[in-house]
């Protein structure tokens, strides 16, 4: 997958522009594949459901259940959907290539984040979405000092 992301970043503008809608869908599929790998690695069957019309968002929701630190990549999933929608809405737009490349960078971020979480499950605990976890730890630590 990383090699394909490199291709998106290095491909000539004309090639990207010529197949923009299909390439936008491919980036979304890459995001889905990354989340599927996470779920399979945790012995969970990836859902075929959709959230807000997108399987990627349903896969994220499924992966985040029981792991609040996984919410650190929620906005990345939404960004990938957003850039896909920009491209699909107007494939001849002047900034279509920029939107594809930005989508590729977001997909790379997902690859790196989820790959990192597979190595270190605590990755993402800094995220504001996992704040209740940190508050519980702080409260427990404070209680020990009393």
UniProtKB/TrEMBL annotation:
This is Uncharacterized protein.
């Amino acid at each position: 997958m990383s090699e394909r992301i490199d291709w998106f970043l290095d491909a000539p503008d004309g090639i990207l522009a010529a197949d923009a809608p299909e390439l936008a869908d491919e980036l979304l599929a890459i995001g889905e594949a990354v989340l599927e790998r996470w779920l399979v690695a945790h012995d969970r069957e990836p859902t075929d459901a959709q959230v807000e019309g997108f399987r990627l968002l349903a896969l994220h929701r499924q992966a985040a259940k029981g792991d609040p630190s996984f919410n650190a990549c929620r906005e990345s999933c939404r960004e990938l959907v957003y850039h896909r929608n920009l491209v699909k809405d107007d494939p001849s737009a002047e900034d279509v290539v920029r939107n594809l490349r930005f989508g590729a960078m977001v997909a790379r971020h997902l690859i790196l984040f989820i790959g990192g979480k597979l190595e270190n499950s605590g990755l993402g605990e800094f995220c504001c979405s996992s704040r209740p976890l940190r508050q519980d730890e702080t409260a427990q630590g404070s209680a020990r000092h009393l």
